[in-house]
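Sharing a chain and its predicted structure for anyone who wants a worked example. Both blocks are below, sequence first, C-alpha cells second.
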Amino acid sequence: MTNLPISRRTVLKGLGVSMALPLLDAMLPKLALGQAAAQVFPRRLAVVYFPMGVFTRDWTMSATGAAYTLSKTAQPLAPYKSDILILSGLTADKARPHGDGGGDHARAQATFLTGKQARKSTTDIHIGVSMDYVISQRIGQQTRFPSLEIGCEGGRQSGGCDPGYSCAYTSNLSWRSESTPNPKETNPRSVFDRLFGGNNAGDARANQQRRQRYNQSILDFVLEDARSLNTQVGLNDQRRVDEYLTSIRELEHRITNFSQQAQTLQPDMRRPDSIQASMGFGPNAGGNADFRQHLRIMADLLTVAFQTDVTRIITHVQATEMSNRSYRFIDVPEGHHDISHHLGDPEKGVKFQKINQFHVEQFAYLLSRLKSVREGNGTLLDNCMILFGSGNGDGGRHNHDNLPIVLAGKGGGTVSPGRHLRYTRDTPLCNLHLELMDRMGVTVNSFGDSTGRLRNLS
C-alpha cells in the first residue's frame, strides 16, 4: 500500500464504464495544524421543487426560533429537525401577474430560480438565467458535470400549457439563458448511465446494450479495477468501497425493476388527458409506474452524484406545475392540480394536504440518504444545502408570498439549522439565492429581484 493519498478523481474503469468513488481516507491529505476539516469537503447545492403550493392551514408553523413545533404537513421532517431551517415569509414577486392576468403556475416554476418575470407567450420565450446555472458556470469545471437536472415528470418545450404561456415555463426549473432551458432527465436509467458511463459515447452505448442483452451489472465491468484498488488502500477504505459497490448494485437492480414496470399501464391509473400527455406524463416518462419508487430512485441517484463528487449542483423537480397526476395510492384519486383548487372545501383540503405530506415524505427520504453517508466526522448532508420549496404559496389562492421553503444541511458549517425563521412580508426569495451563491463560492451584488442578502442563516 502506498503512503501517498490516491487522487480524489480516481475511478474504476471498464468498457464504457467510468465509476467515480466516494471519498476515501486514502484520498484525504493530512491536515496541517489548525487547518479546518471543512476545507477538505466540498459544498453541494440541490434544489428540490414541488408544484401547486400547500394547504396553508396545515403547513404553517406555530412558533419561531429553535423551540418551534413542526406543522402537520411537515411532520415527516421530525427526525431531521436539527438539520433543517424552515423559512417563512419569502416571496417570488415576479411570479405575480403584474398586469399579465392568469398563468400563476407557469410563472411560479419559471421564476423560482430566476427571480425574473416570464414573458406571456407560447412562442416568444423570455425569462432569466437561473441561480443554479450561474453557480455551475463559475465552479462547474471542478467536477465531471457542471450540474445535473433531474425530475419525475417530463414536459414539452413548445406549445401552450398554462393559458397564454409556453410549456417550457412549466416543464423546466433550470435556465441557461433568457430563452434556453436546461431540460431535466426523468428516466432513472438514463441518469444512472450518465453517472457511470465512460467518456467514449460509443463504448458507453455498447456497454449498455451488452448489459441488457446478458443481464449483466455495471459492476461486472469494473471488477479488475476494484481488485487493484484494494491493494492501494487500507481496510477501512476496502470496507467502504465494498459497501458502496453493493449499494450501486442494489440501486441498479431497483432501476431495472422500475424500468420494466414503467412499460406497463397499471389498471388503476387514469389515462392522461391531452394536456398531460403533451407534457410527458405517460408510461414512457414513468408516470404509470410507482411514483414513490421513482422519486426515491432519483433521490438515491442525487445522493450518489454528490457522494462521488461528479457534480455539486443539482435541480430536482418532484412534479411539474399543472400536473394533474392522480395520487390514488394515498387515497386521493383526483388529480393534483384539480384538488389544489380547494377554495376552502374541507374535503378537498384534506386530500390536498395528503399530497403535500407525500412530497414532504419524499424530501425526508432524500435527507435520510444524505445523512447516511459519512464524510469525516460528519455526514454528506452536513456539507450540503438542500433547498425544498414551491413557487406557489397557498394552492387555492395562487399567491406567491409566504412560500413553503425549507433549507436542509449545514453548508459545510456556514448554516445553523434547527430553527424556524419568519421574515417580513414580501422578502424576496432571491435574497436567499444570494446567500446560497455566496456559500458556493459565487459572489454577486444582486440576483433577480433581490434587495439584499437574507439574514440569520448562520
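Comments welcome. The chain has 13 helices and 13 strands.
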